[in-house]
Amino acid sequence: MKRCFFILAVISLLLSCQPPQYYFIQITPTFEKVKEGRKTTVAFYPVADLREVARKDQVGIRKKGERTIPIYALMPPAETVTLAVKDYLEAKGVKAIKLAPEAEGGPPEAEAIIRGELKELWVEAEGTVATLYKLKIALKFEFEREKKRFSHKVELKTEKRENIFSILKVEKLAKEMVKEAVRRALDALELP
User: Fold this and answer.
1) What is the per-residue pLDDT for 81?
2) In terms of CB atoms within 10 Å, which of 1, 21, 59, 168 comes out highest?
3) In sequence order, which residues have a C-beta less than 8 Å from that of residue 78 and are 6 or more positions away?
4) pTM higher than 0.85 for the full model?
5) What average pLDDT score do residues 68-96 get?
6) Domain that holds residue 91
7) For helices 167-187 and 77-91, what crossing angle results, to 10°?
8) How far is CA 122 from CA 21, 50, 52, 161, 182, in A?
9) CA dihedral 161, 171, 27, 138 (to 10 degrees)
10) Is the residue at 4 inside a domain?
């Protein structure tokens, strides 16, 4: 009986040491409120996910020797960027109105309409002892204001080396990257 218990304990210990099959991260950034001013109204469509990935919730991989472990987002990446757009606008003191994807035009009080595309969002964590993090994001926004249209594209890439792998570090770097890309893209709108 003791021997059976010992064998079961060893097996459960070995199974608990097995590396994960996948990782999940939450990458929704938040913006701090920066000003109160004249209430501007901006309407925006949900961001379209145009990334070329097998699964729309996959945002990266962890390479560990010969093994590759997928990294998934808890919330779809396009929805994450859409929430970041809304949060950015509200932090600027703007009244943000989210439109349905099939809607034609915005409400009459909207001074601008924003359409966004997520072209790329990818994280790679490579290495066993020292980890190299590589992050890429590409966003394209179209703005319609006073019957004029213009677009603005933002592409960011960064690499960072750390001593050990941490999924929390991946999450933090991805949040910072999404936040910076949204900020740069929407600053082009020059809201009053």
Assistant:
1) 94
2) 59
3) 46, 47, 48, 49, 56, 118
4) no
5) 92
6) 22-187
7) 50
8) 18, 13, 11, 16, 15
9) 20
10) no
